[in-house]
Input
Amino acid sequence: MTLALLIEQLLNGIQFGVMLFLMAAGLTLVFGVMGLINLAHGSLYMIGAFLCASVALATGSFWLGLAASLAGAAAAGAVVEIVVIRRLYDRDHLDQVLATFALILIFSEGTRWVFGSFPLYLDIPQALQGAVALPGGAQYPLYRLSIIIVGVLIAIGLYLLISRTRLGMRIRAGESDREMIGALGVDIRTLYTVVFALGAALAGFAGALVGAIQSVQVGMGEPVLILAFVVIVIGGIGSIKGALIGAILVGVVDTLGRILLPELFGLFMGPSQATSVGSALASMAIYILMAVILALKPQGLFAAGAQ
Amino acid sequence: MKKLIAASLVGLGLTVSATALAEPVKVGMITTLSGGGSGLGVDVRDGFLLAAKMAGNKDLEVIVEDDARKPDLAVQIADKMIQKEKVDVLTGIIWSNLAMAVVPSAVGQGVFYLSPNAGPSMLAGKGCHENYFNVAWQNDNLHEAMGGHANSAGFKKTFILAPNYPAGKDALTGFKRFYEGDVADELYTKLGQTDYAAEIAQIRASGADSVFFFLPGGMGIAFMKQYAQSGVDIPVMGPAFSFDQGILGAVGDAALGVKNSSQWSKDIDNPANKAFVEAFKAEYDRLPSLYASQGFDTANLILSAMKKADVKDADAFRAALKDAEFDSVRGDFKFDSNQHPIQDIYVREVVKEGDVLTNKIIGIGLEDRSSAYVEDCKL
Output
């Protein structure tokens, strides 16, 4: 394996991690602040992608589509919170899982009903087409590089929002003691709606960004959702920092595992056998990572309570 | 979510020939109409119903149900259709794993099964059955044609990849059956994977001169879009599944010029195909895909058998099916002894007609191709 290939694969891992972070950030906030398991988070991701694709198709501008995905997913999140989620805070997790699973089905079939069964077309904007040369002779797609930059900026923004602003203070307070913050006169219902909409906007944004390089189709959110749950479990539930580090860890381990494990097994078995054993093990790699981390730190790397 | 679309097709019996028998034929269609991959099932259903409507034979009754791509659900629906609805013929399944779950027990209960899409190698070889007919292809066929095409295109070092599941392994086996060059590397990806950055980096590093991939549905869309952005410029090729009409629009210009193999294309020049393409466009306001053509042919095969035999006389009906006396939209069509098609597999190229991406035939990949497993079938 050459250095150029290794650098490219590391960047791939980081880019994948940054995408997972955008999903996991909302999930971990909602779980940390409201104590709610939201399985429908993947549907918000899908909504973002569909909105971006349809607005981009209608107006010819990817950027308008991106704005629409942020606004639309936030609005969808707020509506879902007010209509459904609000009734679930006092229920146990099983009820929450059932209700949000129902939301997945409703959103999936609703989207299929509106947009049809065929995947939508969404291409990346002209300005970000093509690949750039990296030091060491590697080439890397400009769009993926932009995703990394945007993701890091959002991570910094979220960090500042939570640690430096009044809203962030309330979010942190709501995380530690939700009765007390209510008693102090903070409008907890609005706070919850805002947090949920923020998480939804991030998921929708991630969906739109990824939709441009993957396929915009019904059911696209669920595989990502599972990985996002792995990320927040590894990172520690409720922690933004944990979500970022967990996401990058999962992204890099998954990407490098897919490349290195088949090669590793190739050293001592036949090529086709090595590929199938290696690929099988690579798809387990992140779950093994999760198991190891949980064995060492049962609360995850940066559990919110331990901060 | 479970949906029952009972489409009883009533029309005026038009072409009732002298030997036609009034016994109605009840067809149960189990196909994927919701969730991921539903585009394929929708096309098969629409093609099938279009043929039924065009024939206007009121003795053909069709019940359609959605399997949501779940093997257990498909098995339940099949049992219900056989035992409660008393269907004579089952059809519609898209995915090989679902077909393996449903077909052996269904044909064992004396029902006919006509496959409009899946063609797992088991059912073409040792597991063949007198009541099982495949109207599409054996799974390996389109990949074999691409292997042949790679030779004639002068490729010497091809990088091949497919998802890590039985049909993916069949695909790469099929490709290698006729391919004479070297394999740069052989890669199995996770089924349903949507990010191929790591694989594309390996393609770049491998020094291959071409890429062959089998990534059906959304996987192929993601791969093609990411490949176009990666700066790797060696040619790609694959079976029609990643370049059919249903998903070309989502892939976009990244697919232009890609060679792919198919047993059908909308520009095959015969009257049946022209009529089919026109009628499909008029009825559904979109271009047909190969899945729609397979659904259309399946219905016409049943209709042709109905003209010759009574479905209650299983032996006669089976013989009538086997004659395959219908005008297939793909041109010449006949069954081999394992009741899988012998047909030409074409090589197509993705072109732009006006604003619409579509396929155009550029040559024949394999002529009168049967399946590699026909020897293993004891029919």
About this structure: Residues 1-20 of chain B have pLDDT under 50 and may be disordered. Chain B has two domains: 4-137+267-335, 141-262+345-376. The longest strand of chain B covers residues 356-369.
